[in-house]
Amino acid sequence: MIDLEKLKASALAATPGPWESRHHEVVSLSEDVGLLNTICRVHSTTGYYESERDNRDFIATANPSMILELIERLEKAEKENSDYRMAHRSHFFLLSNARRICDAKTRRSANWVLARELFAVGSTSARKICIDAGIDPDALDIKRRTI
Length: 147
Known about the structure:
Shape: rod-shaped
Largest sheet: 3 strands, antiparallel
Distance between the termini: 44 Å
């Protein structure tokens, strides 16, 4: 599992970018004084310049601002995915589908009765589930209550 907080802290502590790949180094231009700061030196132990260049280019591309942007996008996508998954587990959604597929006798019952059966709770809790989901507990259909 990736520790995003640790990765974010490392990116924030690193030399800010942009980073560039030059010769055997990855460098950052210091905006305040116009100097190049060496981030790292990359030398191939195999003698292949191509792999050295590829590694340098990768390090330069994976600079702190890029990592922070990726973390932000990942967190946003995870939140959207979580919201989507939870919407399909909401009491409103579950009660709607339960009413749609239940037998005829249950279909003629009030929403709180359906909630009681679906969630295996008492009548007070079933009524609260309906109210929390924005559903009229005494209605015979699943519609959002108007406030």
